Amino acid sequence: MASQRNLPNIITLSRMAACPAIFFLALSSDGTVLAVTFGLFLAAALSDVWDGYLARKHNLISDLGKLLDPIADKLLLVSTLVPIYIVSHRPAGGGEIPWWGELPLWVLVVLLGRELMVTLLRGFAVRRGVVIAADRAGKYKALLQNVFMGAVLLWYALVRFAEQGSWSGAAWDLWVHFHSTVIGLALLLALVLTIYSMGLYFWRNRGLARSNR
Questions:
Q1: Which pLDDT tens digit goes with each residue over 70-116?
Q2: For the packed helices 31-57 and 7-25, what is the interaxial angle rounded to 10 degrees?
Q3: 27, 64, 86, 183: which has the highest count of C-beta atoms within 10 A?
């Protein structure tokens, strides 16, 4: 039991605890609140790297950690992506995403549906005594998703500050162009890797349906 109550697991639980706050704060229209949301999301996303590093370095890998870490990752995805979808579809406008406008429903379905399908596949595999580890494509997919979501939260905050402060000039225009490109490309590449990694998971584990019958 002591091995389950280690620092990496505490960090993972803290990431899970931050998810409801991120969900509700991301729905705000206040620039300061949105800046805080971005900071909270950034800390949560970086904690995923930190807890894994600590677990490996200090040999603190536990069964509880293996269970909690993917759950925490999926909670962070849902608690950030769903508010972004809601904000981008507000009737009053102002939440449109660069390159994409209102976040399409099919994007939400692809990103969240992939997580559901892979989770079901892993559960199916576990019942047959097989552990499916995350592959490199899945890790890159998660990184690009986090870049997209973090960039959108920062975008929302900066747009509000720009409206209040009447920001203008070449420097601001250059930043808008750069920031917009990061958001647009990150989501496009995340979608490609989401579909690719899901197909790879099912192809590599296609023999599970025939095993242990």
A1: 888 899 999 999 999 999 999 988 899 999 999 999 999 999 999 99
A2: 160
A3: 183
